[in-house]
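Most newcomers find our protein records easier to grasp once they have seen one. Read left to right, the backbone structure tokens trace the chain's path through space. Once this layout is familiar, the rest of the handout is easier to follow. The record below serves as our worked example for the rest of this section:


***
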Amino acid sequence: MKITILSTFYPFRGGIAQFNALLYGVLEKRHSVQAITFKRQYPQILFPGKTQYVTENDVAEAIPSKPWLDTINPWSYWRTAMRIKRDAPDVIITKYWMTFFAPSLGFVLGKQHKKTLRIAILDNVLPHERRFFDHAFNRYFLRRNDGFVVMTEKVKKDLHRYRPDAPCILIPHPVYNQFGTKIERSTALERLNLTFLHDKKVLLFFGIIRDYKGLDLLLNALAGLSSDYHLVIAGEAYGDFRVYQSLIDSLGIAQRCHVFERYIDDQEVSSFFCGADVCVLPYKTATQSGIAGIAQHFTLPLIATPVGGLGETIAHDQNGLITEAADVESLTNAVVYYFENQKKAPFSSALEDYNAENSWESFADKLENFILYVNPEVDGN
């Protein structure tokens, strides 16, 4: 097939770009694939982090993408649409995770040949942090697609609120495997200058820090645990981290919280996941989580709240734990249960089997079959 992937790619950083790069890597071995990315992804004034771009410390794959689309320049919408239309791909694949991207992506999709199949991989339909334009933008984007890939039932239900009869397939989020292999716990802690934690119970909170991710719940849970329990916080705050630092200080847990408040470079990721005993996702709302895909790659078990689609990738009490509720008491109980019943070894073993079933090759196989289901006339040979 002749495939165009229109989304964020190198030199942009982050989980979406990494997802796209890994999918591109599989598809380009089987088909003719071109990657189209953003000339400008977010205006800097709207971006809450420090940088949108890969740095010299990131081990990012330099996908040969074409930077055509500017999200706030409508003239670039037209140019991008016409360039892709002239190329006449069989399939255009987009990745949709924020309604902010609906005008630019939707316009491009709406200008394509009728014979070009348009498939959207949906991370979210309803965003975690709602805005007045969300529903209008969702309607605009979603009706310009012929089929959808979702990774959780939650997103599927959200999609069907807008398009009840839309062709849709659920494919679980593949396991992120670009961060290298597992390393010894002692080596990981040494690299983080946390060797004094070798005999402690280490919880990991990893990724961008936003209110909906529930770090405040986890901090309050830690305050109710014994001094053997420590928390490593690794990720850049989209907002003011001083709110959390004040909570840490007021709870008297500063000696048990080890904070790396910054974007975590790719080469450091293995140290955080291999140095911990469990990764905790104390989210207040969620669809799916790329963090879960990283933890699963390193066979690090997860404790997650029962929100969104988190429970669909975690088999409760088999390869991880789902708490009773998204609150402090439930998180505390789950953490204690995990350690008192020595769940790390059996859960890690179960994750090895899970990883074998959720490879990028498997994701691509299912995606290809879905494309041919939506339009059997697409040349799959």
Notes: The chain has a mean pLDDT of 91. The radius of gyration is 21 Å. The domain at 185-357 is CATH 3.40.50.2000 (Rossmann fold).
